[in-house]
Amino acid sequence: MMGARRLEFLLASLRDGLPVHYPISIQTNGMLLTREVADLCSRYRVSVSVSIDGPKSVNDLFRLGKKSESTHDSVVAGINVLRQHPDSAFLYAGLLSVINPESTPIAIYDYLKSLEAPSIDFLYRDGNHSHMPYGKKSFESIEYGDWLARLLDVYLADPAPPRIRFLDDIIKLSLGGHGVKEGLGDAEYGIAIIETDGTISKNDTLKSSFNGADKFTESWSIKFNELADVFRSHEFKGYHYLQRPTSNICKDCSYLLICGGGMPLHRWKIGFEYDNPSVYCNDQKILISKVISRLQNEGLKVASRIPIKNA
Ligand code: SF4
Known about the structure:
Helix content is 41%, strand content 9%. The chain has 14 helices and seven strands. The protein is globular. Bound molecules: iron/sulfur cluster (SF4).
């Protein structure tokens, strides 16, 4: 939205301050992704991932323009700029899709794969115990877990799949490895957001908990504060610690080292704050138990550090 000239200033400034191998990536809906922008990203070694939920009928349920118009064709046009660029192998990092549990996993998978994405990231929809995510009836229901378990079957049956980070992480964690995705496993993520006016805030996904949940009480800004000082502060450490589950249900759960208790935004409940299992707890149990069972059926040894109980 800032246009090519200002984007170049931003990317040149970032590259000037960061080592050349330091990854910089842009997540975009792709609608303003022109060849000129792609050339800039290539020059400054910035990879691009595009958000699209599926074919037009699925994507346009939630991803509409300002006048409620379809965005699908413009998004695909942006994806095609990446696919056709001479530096496509570097530039086109992948696709990001928010799950609609009412869609058919194989149809979404086949469609996104047809866009030749090297990697597809699937996300749980925003929501919490006080505001159930779209398509989820209750804490006990498993619409998302069932959808992901069916996606897993499609994924494992494909001899040439794109990478699906969410499933790969659960598989790796089940085998005793490490994940890279926020909200899974026991890895720590120190996500800080720098707003366009320089304000430093928490992970913006927290906004869905309550108004202001993503704000620090301190008014930090990169105009006046050193990031290193902010990260050393008591308040930032408290925010960072929020990622670890505090609920006794999670602490006693046999899947904790794989599930991680979910992302903080999914744990929120009015009156109890973040001291709850993820609202997707039962979905996670269905998916993880399916992953473990598929691994065992293949004769693979599930990590011994993970005590297995039936979901
Ligand atoms: S499966 Fe449920 S109880 Fe277990 S760690 Fe995940 S959110 Fe917590």
